[in-house]
Amino acid sequence: MNGSAHNAPSVVEMTLKRGPAGLGFNIVGGVDQQYIMNDSGIYVAKIKEDGAAALDGRLQEGDKIIAINGQNLDNLSHSAAVELFRSAGEDVHLRVQQGPNLQNGPTSSRADGESSSAFGTWTMCTVVALAVITAAGFIAYKRLQLHPRASRGPF
Question: Which residues does UniProt call coiled coil (predicted)?
Fold first, then answer.
């Protein structure tokens, strides 16, 4: 045996009872806000302390939610998935894919039932903005080196 069975993701089913603060976890993903490149799935971003999911103990950050109350989440937008969670009722049946390769988990998200921007998109925008600012600063620095008097103004 090569040990690959230990790395295979498993699919589990669970029912969570909605509490005063909802189901107690945040989600990311969707066809319009992919959390994992080339995967439009819906993932658990954060488990809220003392929420329904935390008290149950089976759902983990990074798990992929395959279905809610029998409704498959394939090819849904983030907002459509959020709406399914909002309208799922008090007892919510989840089909979840768990496994080591899914446990990298998101680090930024909002509460279930709220819209959330994709962490990857935010990161890329930030990187691009920082690159533009850095390039502009470098160009200004080089101009000052080539033309030091130009920076002193019309004296």
Answer: none
**Can you give the residue ranges of every domain in the chain?**
4-116, 118-155
Count CA within 13 A, CB hemisphere, residue 59.
Answer: 32
Please state whether 116 falls in left (phi above 0), alpha (psi between -120 and 50) or beta. Answer: beta
Supply the mean pLDDT for the chain: 77
Could you give the C-alpha distances from 118 to 1, 7, 70, in angstroms and in order? 39, 27, 25
Alpha carbon distance 72, 80 (integer Å): 12
Query: Where do the DSSP E strands lie in 1-90?
Result: 10-17, 25-29, 42-47, 64-68, 71-72
Angle at 14 between CA 9 and CA 19, to 5 degrees: 130
State pLDDT tens for residues 4-16: 455 677 999 999 9
Contact status, residue 85 vs residue 109, Cβ threshold 8 Å: no
Whole-prediction pTM value? 0.62
